[in-house]
Amino acid sequence: MTARVKICGINSRSAYRASVDAGADWVGFVFFPHSPRYVTAEQARAIATEDGPPRVGLFVDPDAAVIASVLDTVRLDILQLYAGEKTCRAMRARFGLKVWRAVGVASAADLPDSDEGLDGFIIESKMPPNASRPGGNAAAFDWTIAKGWAAPAPWLLAGGLTPTNVAGAIAASGTAAVDVSSGVETAPGEKSPALIHDFIRAAKT
Length: 205
Ligand SMILES: O=C(O)c1ccccc1NCC(=O)[C@H](O)[C@H](O)COP(=O)(O)O
What we know:
205 residues, isomerase activity, alpha/beta, two-stranded antiparallel sheet, 6 helices, globular
């Protein structure tokens, strides 16, 4: 099985170039100030200077004014939101962009059973409420929870994926798309072009 790939937390020209060259299907920019991958809108614009795959902008507890100000500076194609479904629908209507809602999963009961009027889901480990960030923690969950899920919308498997485990994760979950950040870094926020190539090769072979 092969899968489409999103490389998240792009914060350098070298990471962007490696993602484009290796055939990433999406690139993600983290607009969450407490993240080690945080970029400003100006930095994202300076990184994505040439054409590449669709750009995903990640926002936590999104504020419409913040998203609007980012969109004034840099083009985004998809919003990845850490928010409830009502807020996600409101942002979709307000900005006319596709919205993927991030869903923390600990058991099959956490998997969405309707499309919620949205365009897709990021399915990743459920973090404790006091976690410093709701994603990007290199935390894997039991991927077999998603196997056989009648997904109501497109979805990406995320959390704790690496070049070494991604093929097993695709097989175990049945996903058609994967999302990685920590697993292609040498330290939090330090993307490795070599690991980006390794990951995409492993997911698409
Ligand atoms: O990357 C972050 O710092 C981050 C902060 C706040 C919310 C989400 C965040 N990242 C999410 C992602 O990068 C991906 O969608 C995915 O969860 C990657 O997780 P991992 O490969 O385990 O770092």
